[in-house]
Amino acid sequence: MPLKPSQILSLLDAKRSDFTSYDTATFQEIQQYTATLGQMSRHSETVLQEKLAGIQYCGALPLEPLGKFLDWVVPSKLSWQNREESLAWVRDRLTGISTFAVDGSQIYPSKDVSIPVALVQIGWYENFHLPSGVYEKDIELDVMTPNDLRVGRGDLADRKVNLRRFEMETQRIIKYMESHADCETCLAFFDGSLVVTFAEAFDEETRNFYIKCMRQLLQASEYFRVPLVGYIDTSTACDLTEMLRLLGNLPESKSIHDAQLISRSKNQAMQWGDRTPLFLCQRSGVLDQYQDQADRIAFTYLKTNKDSYPVRLELPVWVYEAGWHDRIIDWVRGEVVIGSGYPYVIETADQVAVLKNDDRQIFYRLLQDWAEQEDLKLRLSRKMVSKARRR
Questions:
Q1: Per-residue pLDDT averaged across 224-243, rounded?
Q2: pLDDT per residue over 360-391, tens digit each?
């Protein structure tokens, strides 16, 4: 049955005080933090580093010079009268630059199929940004067998599928880097954070797998000298928030995150294309296990949409050390312009990789035909057969 709007509105009215008290408390906390942000943005990076010296998990440390950017907003000074002007700027920045992204999709093992089997697909897109419009896009598949999906008591086979997808995505980016070694006109996007904090919720073996994949990706970027950007469209990271809490001796907040805080700046409101200075990520938790890469991830917040919080960009520290960060961030801005608010290269990789319902039906039909040919006892549930007939 469809939702009943009247019931939803009645429940919202009954619980209005919960929302109001949360909103009031959050507003008061933001006021404290934004005031501290304004004060600290007047200090140099050296002063802040001295204040934070000896604190292992201080959230963040400044990399770029500070003190001249109110509320840590670095103006881009980009303004165009129309889309044609913005695209002309993009052509000036991106012509001849290769941008690359990978995404993945999967068909999880189903209880409607008697044999445990899954399908993982990754798709990639490389845009050479040439007047000819040449590009490359393709897919890679992996069928996961009962042996691949074998799990212990309490484990989930779906998790094995997710791990395989993550591994395939990161390995494909590494392959791109290897084939473009020492390329100063290339940029690889990773759709997500380079700090796999989400893995902390898993068991040790799973967590270590994600960390290993990400360490290999970061090491490859530095070894092959191919820039890498982790693009997080909706970030709830609290690295700058934690740093300000320590600097201003503020009460801990569970509701404020960096992007929200930066967008509330009082002295220098962010305009499209503006960013924060680069900071070194000093987050507690999973980074402890990054070994040689534990102190090698930088981040900035970039305003890419007028009415949304800034996005978070993460990049290897070597990109900053090489002095490439400004042009790399310009390339990201260019991709966002082409994609009308979201990097076109990531958006296209997603379209290439996605498995639709028709693909699911084709996969199971091929599986059933192949199993009959190989005399394997594969059974589909009545429910699945019924769905296939209806569609």
A1: 96
A2: 888 888 888 888 887 777 676 655 555 544 44
Summarize pLDDT for 68-91 with one digit per residue, the tens: 888 999 999 998 999 999 999 999
Domain positions in the chain are 54-355, 361-390
Q: Which residues contact 182 (CB under 8 A, 6 or more apart)?
A: 224, 225
Name the one residue in this structure whose structure tokens are 């993550």: 166
Q: What is the CA radius of gyration of the chain?
A: 24
pTM of structure: 0.90
Question: What residues are paired with 282 via a beta bridge?
Answer: 59
Domain covering 54-355 in this structure, CATH number: 3.30.2170
C-alpha torsion sign, points 31, 36, 39, 43: negative
| Residues making up the chain, counted from first to last | 391
So what's the pLDDT on residue 205? 92
pLDDT digits over 197-217, tens only?
A: 999 999 999 999 999 999 999
Strand order in the sheet with 59-62: 59-62, 279-282, 297-302, 311-316, 228-232, 186-190, 98-107, 118-127, 135-144
**Residue 137 burial class via C-beta count within 10 angstroms: exposed 0-12, middle 13-18, buried 19 and up:** middle
Q: Which of 190, 212, 276 is closest to 239 using CA atoms?
A: 276
Mapped onto helix, strand or coil, the DSSP state of residue 26 is helix
CB count in 10 Å sphere of residue 229 = 25
Going by C-alpha positions, the residue among 282, 313, 317 that lies closest to residue 300 is 313
Neighbours of 75 (CB within 10 A): 13
For residues 161 and 144, give the distance between their C-alpha atoms in angstroms, rounded to a whole number.
8
Cα distance between residue 100 and residue 130, in whole Å:
14
Beta-carbon count within 10 A of 352 CB: 18
Query: How far is CA 28 from each of CA 65, 81, 197, 238, 258, rounded to the nearest angstrom?
Result: 30, 38, 28, 17, 16
Report CA-CA distances (Å) from 4 to 9, 12, 18, 32: 9, 13, 22, 40
Q: 142 to each of 10, 136, 139, 178, how far by Cα in Å? A: 48, 20, 10, 22
DSSP output for 242-270: HHHHHHHTPPP-SS--HHHHHHT-SSS--
Q: How high is the pLDDT of residue 106?
A: 95
Residue 162 DSSP label:
H
**Residue among 254, 222, 216, 256 at smallest CA distance from 33:** 256
